[in-house]
Amino acid sequence: MATPRKPEPDAANLRRMLPSVDELLRSPEGEALAAVHGRRTVKEAARALLQQMRIEVCGGVNRTELATGVADLAAMLAIRLAEASAPSLRRVINATGVILHTNLGRAPLGAGALAFLTEIASGYNNLEFDLATGERGKRDVHVQQWFARLFAAQGCAAPPGSASALSTVIVNNNAAAVLLALNSLAEGGEVIVSRGELVEIGGSFRIPEVMAKSGAVLREVGTTNRTRIADYERAIDSSGTRKTKLLLRVHRSNFEITGFTEQPTLAELVELGQRRGIPLMEDLGSGALINMQHDLPSLSIHGEQGVGDSIRAGVDVITYSGDKLLGGPQAGILTGRADLIARIRSNQMFRAFRADKLIYAVMEATLRSYVAGQYDAIPALAMMRLSAEQIGERAERLHAALADQTSLSLEVIAGESLMGGGAAPGSALPTRLLAIASPQCSANTLAVRLRANLVPIIARVEDNRVLLDLRTVLPEQDETVLAALQFLSPAGAV
Ligand SMILES: *Cc1c(COP(=O)(O)O)cnc(C)c1O
Asked: Is residue 308 a contact partner of residue 297, using CB atoms and an 8 Å limit?
């Protein structure tokens, strides 16, 4: 015998049953919400919720299921308020294998650097205060000595005061560093650049546009694929108003030109600049502070030149990012001849581009790790140093733990991780990938569901498989990835 259906309450009755905004706010649940979100916000949300309920009462909703009790409504309110006040920036798990992923925040920061950041930024500090004299100091000093020690250790030191003495300053990012250097060293004059290096890097950083904004005039030489040192030499103008003020070399960063190509060596450019008395600037983009060949012999990142290599070659000013191969905070770094760096430092624009205390703190901590040779304290470097075998062991462990998830087809395969961030476009690091496919749904659907995880997991999709590269997954995140994969199978929830 069927149970008799409860008679459906009529709309007018139901509307009377709904509490008022005030009743909701004065309830213990309402008070608790106000303590977290503020009374005004809760009141607004309660008003909107009750308004919506009244409309639903009149509409065709199943009235027996409608919640009218204060506790139920407060619970609905709590969910809405939590959603509305959730942060926009979220932690994600990078399973793409792209170490310096520009869309995912580039270089992750190490625990030591973050502890130092908290220590420095949670209170006052000596950012611009000279503790010895009690007078105003310069923020530059906090990173300068570490850069100097690092370069000295790499055999790049020149005696202080000598013509080739080195100096380093930092600004907000490398785009700012390039603009500032061009404006300081070449405003009103010409800058010679090879047509093969007129690059665009991510969105709006294009060499010709940056040049125009700097007030310098771009003088293109050579062709897209071939430029010779004679092309630079012919373009030099040392008379009149078109005076050549700078030779610029730009790292190609995100692409390669192969085939019938020619490019002068750095040594040729240095020789030309010195002979004609014109400084040579190099926008290195992803400046490595370690000697790649020496410190990461297992890596063979071909074509990736370190900052030290450029200094030793005799480049006058080098610009590079803090959060690419360096593995530190977002910053633009200018290293070079002390007299040129002093001109850059005294530019009015420096103030507009200066880095704040957060950057200085994280940069100093990162540089101290370099000086101490503690490369594993820098997460991006630690990830680069992982071998394919180490990553393979972690992938196999997940594979084994998922053995009974028959609804997914899993396999550990060989693949490649990428440096990203415009570093070494042509080189990849051998890795092992956990390849996942499902007979029930497409790889894109699996990827969407991984992104919907509480901590979103970002993965590559290739050949209708989701590929997880654990190189860029922090070791302590393996368990989160495993739990998400268990949940992906229909046995979990579909
Ligand atoms: C990445 C890059 C830039 C821009 O650096 P940001 O730190 O992202 O501003 C400029 N030049 C080159 C060659 C680069 O690779």
From this structure: no
Pocket test residue of 194, 281, 282, 321 for ligand 1, highest count of atoms within 8 A of CB: 321
Angle ∠(316,320,322) on CA atoms, nearest 5: 140
Average pLDDT, the chain: 90
| Minimal-distance CA residue to ligand 1 atom 2 | 285
Closest alpha carbon to 421 in 290, 285, 293? 285
CA of 249 to the centre of ligand 1 (A): 13
Q: What whole-number percentage of the chain has pLDDT above 70?
A: 89
**Which residue owns the Cα nearest ligand 1 atom 7?**
174
The whole-angstrom separation of Cα 343 and Cα 362 is 26
What pLDDT digit, counting tens, does each position of 114-154 carry? 999 999 999 999 999 999 999 999 999 999 999 999 999 88
Which of 373, 268, 378, 284 is CA-nearest to residue 336? Answer: 284
Confidence of residue 70 (pLDDT cuts 50, 70, 90): confident
Q: Which of 77-86, 238-247, 350-359, 431-440 has the lowest mean pLDDT?
A: 238-247
Amino acid letter, 256 = E
What is the C-alpha end-to-end distance of the chain, expressed in Å? 35
SS3 98: strand
Q: Which residue of 205, 282, 319 sits with most ligand 1 atoms within 8 Å of its CB, as the best mutation to test the pocket? A: 205
The protein residue with its alpha carbon nearest to ligand 1, atom 6, reads 174
The residue whose C-alpha atom lies closest to atom 13 belonging to ligand 1 is 285
* Cα–Cα–Cα angle for 199, 202, 203, rounded to 5 degrees: 100
Query: What band does 269 get if pLDDT is binned at 50, 70 and 90?
Result: very high
State the pLDDT at residue 494. Answer: 41
| The overall pTM is greater than 0.85 | yes
Beta-ladder partners of 437 = 409
CB-defined site of ligand 1, < 6 Å? 173-175, 178, 201, 205, 250-251, 253, 283, 285-286, 321, 332, 422
Which atom of ligand 1 is nearest the CA belonging to 102?
8
